[in-house]
Write a structure and sequence with these properties.
alpha/beta; single chain
Amino acid sequence: MRKKIYYTSYADDVVKNSNQDFKLKPGYKWINNNIIFKMESVIIYGLALIVGYIYCKLVLHIHYKNRKVLKGNKDKGYFIYANHTQPFGDVVIPAIGCIGKRIYVIVSQSNYGIPFIGSLLPQLGALPIPDSIGEYKKFREGYTTRINQKHPVIIYPEAHVWPYYNKIRPFEMTSFRFPAELSAPVYAMTTTYQKRRFGKGVRTTVYFDGPFEVNLNLSTKENQKYLHDIVYDSMLERSTHSTYSYYEYIKS
């Protein structure tokens, strides 16, 4: 029988770690130029790619569709918005999808409380969401620097991970201000699930769509809404390719 997961609203955090209220210490560096840190980062990121590739192939049975659209901006940084359905897989699914370009991921500070993985997030390229206005400037400098360095920046606008959820939850426009302000290209990445033809478990199909460009005739706020709507609609359309429910989600 399928496991049942109960929720009261789309904002529920159905997966919690033992240190859910973890907060970063003051002085966290969104951009760390220490040479030792950089060497550690190269090694840890490389190992994560290897482990992630094996996990994606053997556990998620993953296939990517329409990845060619990313090539149109191979000489630029861009934002990728994705549905949040894999506690571990969402660390590596976009990294493998963007292979050849190192990714950086905007994350909640609670992720740093995950045993072992949390301690590696800085080296893996996490950009934690700040808790204060004072830290927001450093956060903005962090993702702006990575875009200017021609890296993809990954955002999960649904905020909380819902394992194997095969629909798209409503999400806020807030994070779409980032590409609207920077006039950076935007892509949608939608993870969908199907029953495997042979064997147990699921087949995971990941779709890329875009690029969606900022309209220079619109204001920042108008572009924020425009990008939100076109990404959300794209994800909704791709989610119709999900034909298998690994878990049963029940509203209580």
